[in-house]
Amino acid sequence: MSRIGVFICHCGENIGATVDCEKVAAAAAKIPGVVHSVDYKYMCSDPGQNMIKEAIREKNLTGVVVGACSPRMHEPTFRRACEEAGLNPFLCEMANIREHCSWVHEKGDPTTEKAIDLVRVIVEKVRRNKPLVPIKVPVTKTALVLGGGIAGIQAALDIANAGHKVIMVERSPSIGGHMSQLSETFPTLDCSQCILTPRMVEVARHANITLHTYSEIESIEGFIGNFKVKIRKKARSIDMKACTGCGLCSQKCPTRKIPSEFDAGLGTRPAIYVPFPQAVPNKPVIDRLNCTYYLKGKCRLCEKVCPTQAIRFDQEDEIVEADIGAVVLATGFEIKHGDFFPEYGFGKFKDVIDGMQFERLASASGPTLGEIRRPSDGKKPETVVFIACAGSRDPAKGIEYCSKICCMYTAKHAMLYRHKVHGGNAYIFYMDIRAGGKMYEEFVRRAIEEDGVKYVRGRVSRVYEREGKLIVQGADTLLGAQPVEIEADMVVLATAAVANDGAEELAQKMHVSYDAHKFFAEAHPKLKPVETNTAGIFLAGACQAPKDIPESVAQASGAASKVGALFSQDELTREPVIAVVNRSAPPLYSTCVGCFLCQAACPYQAIEREEIRTRDGKLIKTVAKVNPGLCQGCGTCVAVCRTKAIDLQGFSNEQVFAEVMALLDRSEPDAGI
Amino acid sequence: MDELRKKARALLEAGEVRVVIGYGGGTGDRARAIFVREPERADELIFDGRCRQNLAIYLTRREVKELGKPAIVATLPALKTVLQLAGEFQIAEGGLVVLAPGADGSLIEFKTFADIEKYLAGAASPIDPAEQAEMDRVRAMSPDERWKYWLGQISRCIKCYACRQACPMCYCPRCTVECNQPQWIPVPSHELGNLEWNVMRAMHLAGRCVDCGDCSRACPVGIPLYLLNRVLIGDIESNFHQRAGMKAEVDYALSTFHPDDRENFIR
Q: In 3D, which of A206, A209, A201, A210 has the Cα closest to residue A280?
């Protein structure tokens, strides 16, 4: 016979004002098997917890029900109290009479009756609770950082400096990401590469970091602390050990007209190339889609000129396997390109460019060596119009969100333009100026007041060409929506920041959730901003949402500290609320029939196969097995199993059934368990 | 028939199989399942219009499994059952010989599941006109009428579980009705319990039923169980483009999610 203690909390006025707690405690005392039932003002306080501990010791309780707030609030508190009094913590449950009752109903008898029902249901559950023991899983202290932009670099360095191994995977030939393409950075206008490249070099040289560039994730399996990853190292067609990075091959390559990704299409590069002078690793890669040898079978000029015979035309992709304990996703973002803006003539007029192209024009390492010259004829533009929110905050275009970085970089662009082209006119069409950040508002004021950038509040409806000029048609909403027409030499669109292409496939591969815009989803928008819903996988930078450099770096360090905390222990402790496949007496051995329909249902790939054998090794049957490290206790497999061979510890079919029956039949006394 | 007997005898003589599961003459004019284990008994095998039972049901029976590797005389639904059972890991490639006699006395021996898949992709599954008429009639009812219709049908159920025993996909050694901790399905044969049992069985067969019709034929009180199964088959086919028993790999409609699924809400 159970000996259950019921403890009803008033939660100050929170419960006490609407629910008659004394009456609830009195009613609970009458439930068969309840040997102790009290109410108290604050059960979570020290005296409240002591009441529970004393009752456990004095009355020899076999189960505890605390009628109070949501278990998400104080379940750990009360379970710890029970454990301290010598009761298995999983024999303690909470009846939520606050969020599910007092907060959502008026004061009155029906409210109190509902509270009694909620307590009664949990008493029936606790009666069937079994002592559970937390699960221990080992931790592999190596982190995988996916993406070599500023977020990935920061995360990798922080984890490596904490003394853990890091494997960094970057899909392009060099690390550095978008930040390496930027000219100068707001709000201080320091050179982007000058502050980034030392960190890139540090990544390459760090004893704890293994760098795989030009590589992608092939597959990932496993669970927190115990992932197995396969990395596809794409064929670079270069022997990385033999190559000295002298650059002769790039100089001699006859295919030179390929649009440079690094210069956002404004410059060109050869087929064998190093993306940019400070690339890490500073060794070339052959672009097989454009190389004459791969296209036509002839050329091999680079092979002839290479002083160290480092060219490997027959190199194949290589798969590297690794055991890792945690993942930081830092795969970044992309800006919207192409025919998304037909009204602005993007792609049609050469002098309508996007923000990244302007960065390259303004960059000393760019195609114009830092001079602002427009792409069509190389002339210095006398009037430049910057259009903010090109695509962003535009439900009609399907992007409702604010891209966050554009207000600041547009102010920076206009400022840089004014610094480089004295006497030039800079106009910015904007919806609102969002400059929330340290020194951000001051930066925008500086653009307006010191650098004479003309801000026009309104939207641009159309950009078209007339007599060699780009005519920008818009409205000035601060002047009563008066039409504005500006003759410009160049137009710069602050296009929306969007998820990287392939983000959806990657999210599915990694089993992390993502939002409608394919940005990876954090576990909680406020309290778990770097965690994903998959334990052991963390987020850093703009793969989660558009972010500027300081924010990306801060989040990367946050993710790194989470990884550090995970790696600080040799074993992980996990709640034992997991599914278990049953065992029964021969000849069944288990009611599992081994149909494995549960395998597809499991969102966490936690279901494996297990062979039941006799003592001399003869196979009796193959049944499902739940991997306790992977299982999150969602119960989907329990619902799918026809033979009820799977049950969820702590939420067993029997317990839930008893709860439902208790609710359905209010009159029936307990059936004598 | 001669082809079938010859093949069965040859298989048994060569020791390639230990038992041939086929049809033989039963009481009166009935055909019944027979288990031929000696080559000389191969002539007892028959195949004609009376042979409708889905013999694949015996493939998962422990008593039959213990006899050794079987050959099975398969009708069209039995072929589908073989594939579905393979998809649910109950039988393995090479673990049985599948013999499909035609009405004209010809015989096809399937070596692989892939061959069965190929054959089924081109085979039509005719539906009995009387059953189709009943289906149309019930479909045309209003929800209220249909509810009354089913309560009427199901109130006649005596919970003998003949439908389960006849069903080749009900191969679980312990059925949910036999689970009494908790007692999901009430034991007595009252209206609620009957309803729960029949709805549960229909749901357990959703996406798995190969539509052999043996449950309806087995029902001693004549409940048209095929209606339940066929509506589910139709829904799953129109919504998820899947039909049980067409492939040896199961893409279970109730538990599989594909990245290109139309239903975005699951993401």
A: A201
Top CATH class of B129-240 equals mainly alpha
**Mean pLDDT score, A431-454:** 96
- Comparing CB atoms, the residue among B88, B174, B255 nearest residue A643 is B174
Any chain A CB within 8 A of the CB of B204?
yes
Structure tokens at A35: 């040997």
Chain B residues 50-89 with CB within 8 Å of chain A? 62, 88-89
In 3-state terms, what secondary structure has residue B79? helix
The SS3 call for residue A461 is strand
Range(s) of chain B covered by CATH 1.10.1060: 129-240
Extract the tokens encoding A388: 């903010």
Choose, out of A597, A618, A659, A665, the residue to mutate when testing the contact with B (most B CBs < 10 Å).
A597
- Residues of chain B with C-beta less than 8 angstroms from the C-beta of A653: 182
Calpha distance A471→A180 (Å, rounded): 33
Per-residue pLDDT reduced to its tens digit, B63-91:
999 999 999 999 999 999 999 999 999 99
Q: Does B255 reach chain A within 8 Å, measured CB to CB?
A: yes
Do A497 and A333 touch, CB atoms closer than 8 A? yes
How far apart are alpha carbons B80 and B84 in whole angstroms? 6
Which residues of A are less than 8 Å from B62 in CB distance? 587
Longest C-alpha distance within chain A, in Å? 95
Strand partners, A528: A524
Interval A291-316: pLDDT, tens: 999 999 999 999 999 999 999 999 99
Question: Which strands form A454-457's sheet, in the order they lie side by side?
Answer: A352-354, A490-495, A383-390, A425-430, A454-457
Task: Give, in order, the Cα–Cα distances in Å from B131 to each of B51, B98, B207.
Answer: 19, 29, 20
**How, if at all, do strands A135-138 and A142-146 pair?**
unpaired
CB A559 within 8 A of CB A539: yes
Bridge partners (DSSP) of residue A607 are A626
Extended beta strands in B26-142, E state: 31-36, 70-73, 97-101, 107-110
Among A508, A598, A600, the residue with its CB nearest the CB of B259 is A508
Chain A residues whose CB is inside 8 A of the B174 CB are 584, 588, 591, 643
pLDDT digits over A246-288, tens only?
A: 999 999 999 999 999 999 999 999 999 999 999 999 999 999 9
Task: For residue A160, list its beta bridge partners.
Answer: none
Facing residue for A593 by CB, picked from B171, B250, B255: B171
Domains of chain A: 4-132 (3.40.50), 142-234+317-332+500-567 (3.50.50.60), 248-305 (no CATH), 334-498 (3.50.50.60), 579-649 (3.30.70.3270)
Locate the chain A residue with the closest alpha carbon to B180: A654
Angstrom distance (rounded) from CA B9 to CA A24: 77
Query: Which secondary-structure segment (H or E) carries B105?
Result: none
Cα distance between residue A118 and residue A21, in whole Å: 13
Q: Count CB atoms within 10 A of the CB of residue A275.
A: 21
Interface residues of chain A, partner chain B, Cβ below 8 Å:
504-505, 508, 513-514, 584, 587-588, 591, 593-598, 600-601, 622, 636, 640, 642-644, 653-654, 657-658, 661
Decide: A11 and A68 in contact? Cβ < 8 Å: yes
Inspect the interface and report whether the beta carbons of B255 and A597 lie closer than 8 Å. Answer: yes
A346: β partners: A349
Q: Which helix (H) or strand (E) segment is A143 a member of?
A: strand A142-146
Among residues B105, B151, B112, B130, the alpha carbon closest in space to that of B226 is found at: B130
Give the model confidence (pLDDT) of A195-248 as tens digits.
999 999 999 999 999 999 999 999 998 888 999 999 999 999 999 999 999 999
CB contact under 8 A, B173 and A642: no
